[in-house]
Write a structure and sequence with these properties.
Elements: E1 5-9, H1 11-14, H2 20-26, E2 32-37, H3 42-52, E3 57-60, H4 63-66, E4 76-77, H5 80-84
Parallel strand pairs: 1-2, 2-3, 3-4
Length: 86
């Protein structure tokens, strides 16, 4: 079954970052279509973006990083607060 998969990086919830090399490898799998990074670490997010080189979309889920996203190639903003509102 080819279901689109979005990887989630929420280190504040699980105590560890999703390793950049794992993201880079998984980006080659056809049905892995995106990463939502809620780390708030712009350096990490930028490095991931460079590693995946357009193979997957990168969502930013940490509000403090959103202002720095334009011009860096981050394709979408998906703040978590919106997901909790009706």
């Amino acid at each position: 079954m080819d279901v689109p998969i979005i990887m989630y990086n929420t280190p504040q919830m699980v105590g560890a970052y999703l390793p950049r090399t794992v993201i880079e490898d998984l980006a080659d799998i056809d049905n892995i279509v995106a990463l939502k990074d809620s780390s708030g670490n712009l350096i990490y997010t930028t490095e991931v973006l460079e590693m995946v080189q357009g193979r997957i979309d990168v969502f930013v889920g940490h509000d403090e990083v959103v202002a720095d996203c334009p011009g860096r190639g981050l394709l979408r903003n998906d703040p978590g607060q919106r997901q909790r509102l009706p």
